[in-house]
Amino acid sequence: MNSFFLIFIGIPILEIILMIEIGGRIGALNTVLLTFLTAITGIYFARREGLKTVQTGILNLYKNRLPVFEMVSGASIAIAALLLIVPGFFTDGVGFFLLIPFTRKIIINFFVKQKNIKIKDVKEETLDGEIVEDKKDEL
Fold first, then answer.
1. Under a CB-based contact definition with an 8 Å cutoff, are residues 104 and 112 in contact?
2. Radius of gyration over every alpha carbon of the chain, rounded to an integer in angstroms
3. pTM for the whole thing?
4. If phi over 0 gives left and psi between -120 and 50 gives alpha, with beta otherwise, what is residue 77?
5. What is the number of other CB atoms lying within 10 angstroms of the CB of residue 67?
6. Chunked in runs of 10, what are the mean pLDDT values of the chain (139 residues)?
């Protein structure tokens, strides 16, 4: 089964189940208010962390270093903000997890290590060649 299809079907089902369970325990109105509160809080923290990331990126540019970590961190903050705007408790948990700088650094390092392992496994084969022009265009 396609993982993209599984995500589009699985996450909404999980969100609906969580909404029903939490709504049954704390009430429907409290569940709706909690959903709005997590969205507003998430947007605030996403903005704050995003500004910190931009500041450190500019500082790295002044030091003539590439702000690679800041670019990846900014992308993860944007994803976290999107997840926090989407109503639901599972996506809010994942979004808050991505907003915390410590856990964001762990996730980024994990994916970078996975990418480095894949790059090292690929054999580097170079094919040398020479271009020989027999016929030149004549005007």
1. no
2. 23
3. 0.69
4. alpha
5. 18
6. 81 91 92 89 85 86 83 85 87 88 85 61 62 66
Residues 65, 113: Cα–Cα separation, whole Å:
21
**Residue ranges per domain, the chain?**
7-119
- SS3 percent helix, strand, coil of the chain, rounded to 5, is 80, 0, 20
Query: Is 77 in contact with 46 (CB distance < 8 Å)?
Result: yes
CA-nearest of 68, 79, 75, 81 to 112 is 68
CA distances from 129 to 122, 123, 126 (A): 22, 19, 10
Residue 91's closest CA among 32, 20, 25, 38? 38
